[in-house]
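Hey team,

Sharing the Citrate synthase run so nobody has to redo it. Sequence (373 residues) first:
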Amino acid sequence: MTSAITAPRGLKNVVVADTELGDVRGEQGFFHYRDRDATVLARTRPFEDVWQLMLDGALPTLEQSAVFARRIGELRVIPGGTVDLLRATVSEGADPLRALRIALSALGLDDRPMLDLPEEARREAALRYAAAFPTILAAAHRLANGLDVLDPDPEAAHAADYLRMATGAANPRDVAAVQTYLVATIDHGFNASTFAGRVIASAGSDMASCLLGAVGAFLGPLHGGAPSRALAALDAIGDPSNTRAWVRERIANEEKIMGFGHAVYRTHDPRSELLKQVAMGYDSALVRRATAVEREIESAINELKPGRRLYANVEYYAGVVMSEAGLPPSMFTPTFAVARVVGWTANILEQARDGKIIRPSARYVGPAPIPGV
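Structure output:
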């Protein structure tokens, strides 16, 4: 009999699978998609090209890029019945991500298990759902705020169409900022939502079910819900001169400082550094306050907890960039999901090819069982 292996809480530093999709090197402050530096891709490539890299393993030629973009544009147009369902169920102030779960369930009503599908059909399902995310989330947002739903434009680029459908406007600077953010957050190792999706995929389930599991994990404020909370912390601090007292109170109460620290990075988060550069391009009062508060928080933490360095993570400047691009806090996490669904679907497809169900064990620590009862 094989003896059990005891893993640390949260499976920290436990390798549970092999992947060709990318890696996060926390000590170096570096992450990559396939064999490409992710931050370079975010600066130089459109979202659709990086999407194709994640799915197919290589960046496309100009011709392949155009064909892929056209296909994604077509798939952003979702069935009218799904939009009608959202109109019937989305109430004022509703969370677009929770509405997304309803739409995914409806779209997946007739889906077959991936175990029974050939690879090409699995890939098509991945494209169909990932392309639908911005349309569903933008529609849910507008319905929750009493606004008319804007139809997708199949001819538009993915990031531009999402921003227009969500906010009603999409100027080039804001589109470029949002696209940089989207590319930078497509994938990031075996985070909670990615792992949740892969566990469901390992059972041979359908794509919608896998994505519902990923979205469920993503709704947690310790995961996808962090960008809006980081901006809320910035608002709570107000003037940068208040920062040290605010940090001192959080540390005294053993509260988490949202927007700072990361489970993997032990140095600066490269995504935060990238988005800080994007934010600086706006040169606004919010950006100037954010950079000043960042310096004060890092200095205060170093003073109050010597030897424990915490740096701004992706959520800190993500909220600033999205706010400057015209997206309200209620759309920060949904926008994150528009990017991350590409990583989720790539991981789900990779796991489905493995064919081995993920089935760990647990240690029972309750009362001793009573035989015969």
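Residues 224 and 248 are 26 Å apart (CA to CA).

Ping me if you want the raw files.
A.
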